[in-house]
Design a protein that fits this description.
This protein is of the alpha/beta class and about 475 residues long. It is about 30% helix and about 25% strand. The protein starts with a strand and ends with a helix.
Amino acid sequence: MKKLSQLLQSIDVVEVIGNANVELYDIVSDSRLAGEGMMFVAVNGVNVDAHKYIPQLEGKGLSAIVCEQLPQSLDSNVTYIKVKNSAIALGKLASQWYDNPSHKLNLVGITGTNGKTTTATLVYEMARLMGYKAGLLSTVCNYVDDVAVPATHTTPDPLNLNKLLAQMVDAGCEYAVMEVSSHAAHQHRIAGLRFVGGAFSNLTRDHLDYHKTVDAYLEAKKMFFDMLPQEAFALTNIDDKVGEVMLQNTKASKKRYSLRAQADFMGRIIESRLDGTLITFNNHEVEVLFTGKFNAYNLTAVYAIAILLGWDPEQVLINMSRLVPVAGRFQAFHSPKGYTAIVDYAHTPDAVVNVLNAIRDVIGNNGNIITVVGAGGNRDKGKRPIMAKEAAARSQRVILTSDNPRDEEPADILRDMEAGLDDEGRAKTLSISDRREAIRTAATIAGSGDVILIAGKGHEDYQEIKGVKYHFDDREVVAEIIKTETK
């Protein structure tokens, strides 16, 4: 329970109508959860403007309402707080409500199109290997020290986000690592948080169904770097075409990493295999359990963040070799028939290219690549033909299939993908909407030395069809198929 006047010190207030000294029992941004003694924050969201629900809350016993536009009829028992931006206000109020937990943690944010989950998870794992208690906020799962908390969004809403951070503080965590999605930055879900550092991995086409243009997508990512304080670090991948752009307006200490150029932190691949890579970090040689250039970038970022956090450099290098791949990220399964199946979350054209290039770099001309790939429904349709085209250009066989069709017909999504194929690409491509059958077909085609890439879902254990989530896990399907095979 907190006094309203105490919370109002954290936000920019345009006008207060009513008693600012009332006691509050809770804060909510979902009108369905609003009740006696609570504060309701009306956010003008992407799909719904919560201001329209304010009249329906009369008689619910609310103590306060935060809004950008005051309702026509005011309840004399409610205190109204008018603000310019209720989304920003919600973030700051949530932080204040939970006693500013991010100020009591060394909080690091990771943004970029690809690599966020892997980098964030590995920094969290590195912290624990270094002997620290740490928390993680990621697409796959949230962790409060070693306790798993299921994830529903890449970056939770401000109230759940600060609640999780507060739980980390209560559990004795010193460090916290979180993925910062473009949606979260644009929707001000991270308003009110204090970061000690931020890292940028790369920017490629994604989420254009939301941001509309690549420039708008970039600006959303850059918003995070722009908000970093002077005492924080801002780490960017200068091999990415917009890497330096991310640093343009930040007040934080500017740091750079690269696999190609001179930088503060340099990674260099010496030798790559399907089960690992020999790599150097700032000229220190380490054997790691990861494959591919894209993972070399992720690991170089992890190394850089660890050093920037002030951890012992020698122990960091030892622990780099102890890190293990994230579930559903280049996860390999070996068949007795001699082929290898790799399950990966790659769901953008660039990610598909990165994984396929990594496979080809390792196997050279000694095997065929069979790619199973789909595209999500109700999302950016423009990337569908590009993904099919890139897969066909780097594979001997391609099987187009369903991902999460959501409200769309799988056949329509497959037609969109097929539109990206030329005659040569069509000749090597099958379209099988049933994902299980598509994977099974790839296993039937594969011979000794071949590699099957099953792209798009990675760690996900469901398929979303017509509003219903059905259990489906690429990893389970592959394991079942391999179990039935003999040499």
